[in-house]
Amino acid sequence: MFDFLTALWPLFALIVAGAVMKACRFPDDGFWAGADSLNYRVLFPALLFANLSTAPFGDPALPRLLAAVVLTLGVGTAGLWIARRQQGWKAARFGVWVQGCLRFNTYLGLATVGSLYGQEGLRLAAVVLGVLVPLVNILSVVALSMDNSLSLRRLMRPLLTNPLILACLAGALVNFSGIELRFGADRLVSLTAAASLPLGLLCVGAALRPRELTHELAPLCANSALRLLLFPTLAFLAAWLVHLPLMECTIVVLFFALPTAATAYALTRTMNGDSQLMAGLITLQTLLSAASLPLVLSLVGLLST
Fold first, then answer.
1. Which residues contact 213 (CB under 8 A, 6 or more apart)?
2. Three-state SS annotation for 266-300
């Protein structure tokens, strides 16, 4: 567990630094909105593109890795829909539960994989993101629209304009086509990508809203327990079922053990969901994950040996 703590504490230190900087209003509030937009639209897509363009699509373990991802997502989604019928949740509420359980903090995820497994792990993680990001976005939009008619245009628009999805598609196309970036283009992409994760983690800290933790404590704790404990367990069982090697197993479990994405708040607010509950989930899960992530990853290592 000490190795995981060593790998993870600098990442959470950046999150805490972002929260402190936001509280001290340094830089001013306008900086964080611009920085988050820059990272989401330019820097992080460059990171995904760089890793997917060189991803090991010929890895024999890759089909099993993706099968474990889809299996976990499918079982978890089915469980949420059953819970919706039993609880009678409206779309505004159900969409928050879905995002709280299924969405994940991509900045923290890739930073953790990079700390543990370096470039090899990042390339595999980028492939996982190429599958998970569009699926989770579709499920989130559908869940938030359950009480309204959902047109194909309304469903597809967030996907076709999502910079992360477009970057994944572009990286995969370059990879399969065999095109090599030359004349310094590869260096430009690499430099752009390198700025993404530190800035992203600072923005995660700046987006935390501790005041929202005083509302609806029971749903906050229940959803966080599902996301941080139950879903990693499902992911481990899926990885065990398809006999994944340790690195691939750890990556699958990690992406289902991450706290929910800070960007879930913007989608929830835009689609008239319960944004207060969503803000509370983002904050509580991010705080709890500082303890849960090292624990979950340590258990994966012990059970996989």
1. 220, 280, 283, 284
2. HHHHHCCCCHHHHHHHHHHHHHHHHHHHHHHHHHH
Residue 305 forms part of a structural domain? no
Give residue for tokens 């367990």. 233
Query: What's the gap between Cα 19 and its chain centre?
Result: 19
8 A C-beta contact, residue 171 and residue 122: no
Residue 158 within any structural domain of the chain:
yes
Q: What is the pTM of this model?
A: 0.94
CATH number at residue 212: 1.20.1530.20
Question: The tokens of 293 are what?
Answer: 């992530």
Confirm if 251 and 113 have CB atoms less than 8 A apart: yes
Domain membership of residue 304 (yes or no) is no
pLDDT, tens only, 205-238: 999 999 899 888 999 999 999 999 999 999 999 9
If one counts the domains in the chain, the total is 1
The answer to whether 39 touches 196, Cβ cutoff 8 Å, is yes
Q: What is the pLDDT of residues 65-99, one digit of tens each?
A: 999 999 999 999 999 999 999 999 999 999 999 99
Q: Has residue 162 been placed in a domain?
A: yes
Q: Rounded to whole angstroms, what are the CA distances from 258 to 20, 103, 107, 140, 189?
A: 22, 9, 10, 17, 26
* Mean pLDDT, rounded, for 98-106: 97
Whole domain around residue 253: which residue ranges?
A: 2-295
CB 142 within 8 A of CB 81: no
